[in-house]
Amino acid sequence: MGLKKQSKLINPGSITYRIFLSYSFLIIVIISGLLIFTNKIIEETYIKSIENNLINTAYILEDDISKTSETELQNTIRKLSGSIGDRITLIDAEGKVKADSFVSDPESLENHYYRPELQAAREKTTGSSLRFSSTISSRMLYVAKISSKKDFYIRISRPMTEIDTIMMKINRLIILVGLSAFIVSLFFNIIISKKISNPVRKTILFAENFAAGNFSHRIVDFSSDELGILQRSLNRLADNLETHIYKLTVEREKLSVTLETISDPIVVIDNEGYIILSNNAFRILYNLKDDPSGRKYYEIIRGTKLNSRIAKAINRQTDEIFEHKFSRERIFDIFLSTISGSDSLAGMLIVFHDISEKKQIEQMKTDLVGNLSHELKTPIAIIKGYLETIQMQQDNAELRKDFISRSISNLDRQNAIINDMLKLNRLETSGEFEFEEIDINEIVSSCLASLTPKIVRKSISVRNSIDMNCRFIHANKFLTEQLIFNVIDNAINYNKEGGEIIISLASDDDNRIRLVFEDTGIGIPDESIDRIFERFYRVDKGRSRSTGGTGLGLAIVKHAAEIQNWIIMTESLSAKINGTRFTFLIPVNDSFKH
Ligand code: ADP
Fold first, then answer.
1. φ and ψ at 467, to 5 degrees?
2. What three-state secondary structure class fits 203?
3. Integer Rg of the chain from CA
4. Is the CB of 534 under 6 A from ligand 1?
5. Ligand 1 atom closest to Cα of 540?
6. Which one of 105, 191, 214, 365 is CB 3.0 to 4.6 Å from 209, fit for a cystine?
7. Which domains are assigned to the chain?
8. What is the pLDDT of residues 503-512, one digit of tens each?
C-alpha cells in the first residue's frame, strides 16, 4: 500500500507531482530574481557612492597636482595615493601616462586615450568605468576627471574586492535562505498535495468502484472545497443510480420469474429477427443448453413452415394464431403477437402452447363415442333382428322362446356396458374416495363367492396364498372391490376349462404389498399388452363377447389403481405354462401394519 502511494506521488502525471514541479519552479525563479535584484541594487548603490567619493577626491587633488613640477609628479602622486589609499594615475591630454602610484615606470604603460573613463571625462569633465584589471586580477572602478585647463586627466581607481566579498556573503545568505525556503515549501507542498490528492484519490476510488459495478461504495469525509461539492453530487448520483438499478433489477426479476413460471415456451424476437428474451420452457423445447439471446430465431427454430410464418408476421406486423405439428404426438398452438413498444423492444412475442394432450383427449373422445355407439348399437341391431323374426314367425313357439332369451342376454350385455360406463364415469369424475383400513382377504373372498357359479362351470381351481400378516391395507373399499372383481372375472373368462387361478398377497422388500393374480388361460400377445387397459380394447372380440365382457373391465381396473396410487404390472406368461399375471404394488401406510 505504502509503495503504491509512493509510486503515485512520483507519478509524472499525478496532481501531486505537478504541484511539486510548479512549486519548485516558482521557488527557483524567486531565488534567482532575488539574487539578480539584490546584486544589482547593492552593487549600483555601492559603486555610485564610491564613484562620487573618488570624483570628489579627484577635484581636491587637481589643484595640488597642477602646481607640482613634472619631475616631482611621480613622488607627489605616490604620496597622495598613500594618504587616500587608492591608485592615482596622471595622464596627459594625448593619453600618455605621466605618473602612476602603482607603477614605477609609467612611461612603459600603453596609451590611455581611449579608456572609457577618459572618453567620458572628455565629454562631461568626469567619467567612470568598472572593468576587470588583469594587472591586479580584480574588478576595478576607474574614475577620471579632466583638468579645468584640459591639459591632463587625474584618474583614481579602486579595486572592487571588498564589494565582491560582501556580495559573495550576501549571495550565499540568499541561497541559504532560498534553499531553506525550498525545503520548507517542499514539506508544505507534500502536505498540501496530500490534502488535495487524498480527496481526489477517494473520488477516483469511488469512480473505479462504480465502473466495476459496485454501486454501494460511497465517499465519506467530504472535503470542504469545490471537490467536496463534487463528491456530494457523485454520492447523490450513486444513490439515484442504485435506486434505479434496484428498481430495474426487481422489475427484471419479476419479469424473469413470471416468464420462467409460465410452462408454455415463450420467446421474444426483435424486428431484425434476433432473440431478446426466452424462458426455460423454450430452451427445453429446443434442447438448448445456453440462453439463445442475441442469436437469430431461425438458428433455433428450425421448421421452415413455422419460420416463414414468423417472418411474414414480422414483415406485416400482424398477430397470428395457428396450429403447428412438431411431430405426430406434439402439436402446439402458436401465438404470434407484435410488440410495438419502445424501439428497443419492438418485435414479436411467440408463445408455444402445447395442445398435444388436448388433441389426444379429443381423439380419445371421438374414439370413445364411436366405440360406445358401436357397442350399444350392436345388441340393439341383434335384438331388432330377433324381434322381426319373431314377428314373422309368431307360430313357432320354440324359436320365439329361444330368440326372446337371446334378446334378453343382449339387453343384459347392453346393461352391463352402461353400468360399466357409469362406473368409469364415477371413477373419473368423483374426486372423493375415502381411504380406510380394509381387509384384502375379505374382499378377495367375497369376489370369489360371487363368481363361484362361473368358476364351477369352468371347473377352475383357485389357489389362495394370502399372507394374513399384510391383509390390512389403507385403501378405498369400492375401488379395491371393482379392481379385484374385474381381474378375477377376466382370469376366469380367459382361462381354459379345468384351469387354475393363483391369488397371492405378500409384502416385498421395498415396503410395499404385492397383490398377484395369475391364471393358466390364453395369455395376452405382446403387442396387445400396452393396449388392454384402453376402453373397449379386446384382443379377441368374439371371445370377449362370448364371455359377456364389456371391454371396460381393465379400464376400470386401471382407474381404480391410479386413484389409489397402485402400480400395475402385466405379464403374459411363457408359451409352456401359458397364462397371464397381473401384479399390483400397493404402497404401505405404516399405521395399518398388523
Ligand atoms: P373384456 O370385458 O373384454 O374382458 P377387459 O377390459 O376386461 O375387457 O379386458 C380387455 C381385454 O384384455 C380382453 O378383451 C382380453 O382380450 C384381454 N384380457 C384381459 N384379461 C385377460 C386375461 N386374464 N387373460 C387373457 N386376456 C385377458
1. -80, 110
2. helix
3. 64
4. no
5. 16
6. 214
7. 1-214 (3.30.450.20), 262-354 (3.30.450.20), 359-429 (1.10.287.130), 436-592 (3.30.565.10)
8. 999 998 888 9
